[in-house]
Every structure is written in structure tokens, then in C-alpha cells.
Design brief:
The protein is of the alpha+beta class and 365 residues long. 29% of the residues lie in helices and 19% in strands. The chain has a six-stranded mixed sheet, with helices on both faces. A hairpin with an 8-residue loop joins β1 and β2.
Length: 365
């Protein structure tokens, strides 16, 4: 596998250099799609969406493949703490550093390198440009009119382990309203919109603490609902009763838990009932997406892939599962390196993932 590493790194260097930072659903992946398309000989290419809308998809198919590899091409914004140019791949002993190297352009580089060794193998690739923005417009559009696959292999950092279960994801925004006035008015204690939001947050934390004691019956490493208040705003100044406040939060139901029902439970908290407006922003299924979802275990056994532990982060594999396609998550790198300054990936991980893709392509009919 070491002989393919220079090819992987050449691809990764080119992929990282193409800026696909996704600030608010506006990543332009057209140049990256063009680069990848140039390395897909004999493939039928089906591109959908508009670059200016940030939701391009590219479905590339050669022959009659059974397995679909899915990779998102957008990255999070680099931020200001990088010690080097985030769009110029840097080599550092046993790792390489670059924006998207771990999440998840490294996987795409591995797949392109493996493909060069199997120029006639049946293969299928789905690229999407909007995963980091949330909403998954590209995958949802693809799944409304997709061909049948025996397995969808979604690339996210799992240390090259095949992950067949992960949490769902739910998020909402709760708004609270009051009547402004002088802060010397005793009613501020109860009426202040920020106080209302604070009471709600305390009760939501108490509910999450109760869930934290409950481990999943099958995936015992997962417990709780991972409540996180992501943003809170309200009020004008200290001597004015805040007339408006809002907070947004996320939580992650366990496999088998309904995201909608979990949000409903939170919305029924006494303090939540005082909110002036409630907006559900996301309610995504876990993997597998329900008791009737197809199982990927048979495919993994046939491919000889190492099965990893369930993970807490959400992936679009759940959407494939909900659509009736057996799905798993498998990619190089560690999620701890994703979304960080000086994002990096180990060379050993790139070699391992390339070997996995080679095995998949070698077994194609």
C-alpha cells in the first residue's frame, strides 16, 4: 500500500487547494467536481444542483456496482488559529496538515488513488457539497430518485472502522417574550424574558441529567442525549426588563429513540410552555433509522471489514438507512481532528483506507 501513498497525497494536495469552505450553505464545489471528473474514465456523470446555491451533487457510475461511496466535499471555515496556510497541504513526519484533510477530502483522495489501480472495476461515487451546512439537500435530492445499491458507504472519520450505528440529531429554537420596564419592578424576577429562558434551560439540563443515567440496551457505550445549548441572546441592558430572549440547542437521541418525540418531551417542560415561539430546526434519525431499517452487517461480513463501536456524531448514513439502503460510516482519520485548527490526518490512516477501497474495487463484478 505504501506505493500508492504518493498518489494519494498528490490528489489530496490538489483537493485541499480548492477552497470549499462552507460558511452558511454557500460552498462552491464546481472546481473540485471538475477535478474529480477528470479522473473518472469511463464513468457516466450526473451532476445536479447549482454552484451558486451551494448544493451541487455528482453521481458517477461505471458498470453495475453494488456499493456506493459517498463523500462530502465541503469543509468548515478555517478560522484564525491556523499556524500555516490551510489550503496548502503540509507534511509533518507521519501526518499531513490541511483544511479538509481529515474531514473528509482524505477519503476522496484514497478512493481516486485506488481507482487508478482498477481502471475497469465497477464503481459508484456520490459527491455532495453541502453536508457541513446542515439540511443535507444534496443527499435528500439524490435519494428521491436513486438507483438501488446493496450498501452505501459514507465517508466520515472513523479510523477506518465500519460504523453501523450512531445517534440521531435534533435541534430547536425557543423564544421568550415579556413586557419591558424598569428593572426595579419586582415582576422582573418572573417576567424577564432572559429569566424565562434560563428556567427552561435549567429544566432541560435536569431532563438531560436523568437521561445520562440510561445506557442503550444494545450499544452500551452510548448513554444520555448530549444536550447542548449552542446560542442564547436577549435583553438590552441591566436596568431594563428584557422583553425578548431566545436560545437554540441541540440534542442527540440514541439509536431507536425518535428525535421528534425527544423534542416533544423537551417542549412539554413547564418552563418551555411559557415560550412565545418554538421552532424545530432539525429532527434527524439515528443509524440504523428504526427497527425496520436494512442491516448492513451481512455486507460487512462479506467484505471483511472491521466493525467499530457506535459513535455519537450524526452522519448522512442515517438518511440512506431511512431510504431503505443498508448504510455504514467508514473513513480515515479521527473525529477529534475534524473542525480544528491545523487539521491533520495520519499517513497510516490514508494507507489503510486506500487498501479498503482497493479491496472493494477488486471484488466488483
Amino acid at each position: 500500500m505504501a506505493s500508492l501513498l504518493p498518489v494519494v497525497l498528490d490528489h489530496l494536495r490538489s483537493l485541499v487547494a480548492i477552497n470549499t469552505q462552507n460558511q452558511s450553505g454557500d460552498a462552491d464545489a464546481s472546481q473540485l467536481f471538475k477535478y474529480v471528473s477528470q479522473h473518472l474514465p469511463g464513468f457516466e456523470l450526473h451532476q445536479q444542483g447549482r454552484a451558486e446555491d451551494g448544493d451541487l451533487t455528482l453521481h458517477a457510475v461505471r458498470g453495475r456496482p453494488r456499493i456506493l461511496v459517498n463523500v462530502h466535499t465541503d469543509t468548515v471555515p478555517a478560522g484564525h488559529r491556523w499556524s500555516c496556510d490551510p489550503l496548502a497541504l503540509q507534511a509533518d513526519q507521519d501526518r499531513v496538515i490541511g483544511l479538509g484533510a481529515c474531514d473528509i477530502k482524505g477519503a476522496l483522495a484514497c478512493w481516486l488513488a485506488a481507482l487508478q489501480q482498477h481502471p475497469h472495476a465497477d464503481a459508484a461515487l456520490l459527491l455532495c457539497s453541502d453536508e457541513e451546512a446542515g439540511g443535507s439537500r444534496g443527499v435528500r435530492r439524490f435519494l428521491t430518485d436513486s438507483r438501488a445499491y446493496q450498501l452505501a458507504m459514507i465517508a466520515e472519520p472513523t479510523a477506518c472502522q465500519a460504523v453501523t450505528a450512531h445517534r440521531g440529531y435534533a435541534s430547536a429554537k425557543a423564544e421568550f417574550s415579556s413586557r419591558s420596564g424598569h428593572s426595579s419592578d419586582p415582576r422582573a424576577l418572573e417576567d424577564n424574558a432572559i429569566h424565562q429562558a434560563s428556567r427552561f434551560l435549567v429544566q432541560a439540563q435536569q431532563l438531560a441529567a436523568q437521561h445520562a443515567e440510561q445506557a442503550h440496551l444494545v450499544y452500551t457505550g452510548l448513554r444520555g442525549i448530549c444536550l447542548n445549548a449552542g446560542r442564547i441572546e436577549g435583553g438590552l441592558k441591566n436596568n431594563i426588563i428584557a422583553e425578548h430572549a431566545w436560545l437554540s440547542f441541540g440534542c442527540r437521541p440514541l439509536p431507536g429513540q425518535s428525535a421528534d418525540k425527544l423534542l416533544e418531551q423537551i417542549q412539554q417542560l413547564p418552563a418551555a410552555r411559557t415560550s412565545s415561539h418554538w421552532q424545530t430546526m432539525a429532527a434527524e434519525p439515528a443509524l440504523p433509522a428504526g427497527p425496520d431499517a436494512p442491516d448492513a452487517a451481512e455486507q460487512l461480513a462479506r467484505l471483511g471489514l472491521s466493525v467499530g463501536q457506535p459513535v455519537s456524531f450524526w452522519t448522512e448514513a442515517a438518511l440512506f438507512s431511512a431510504a431503505g439502503i443498508p448504510a455504514m460510516v467508514c473513513g480515515p482519520g479521527d473525529i477529534a481532528q475534524a473542525h480544528t485548527a491545523d487539521e491533520w490526518i495520519a499517513l497510516e490512516q490514508l494507507q489503510s483506507m486506500t487498501a479498503i477501497y482497493q479491496r472493494l474495487l477488486a471484488e466488483s463484478p
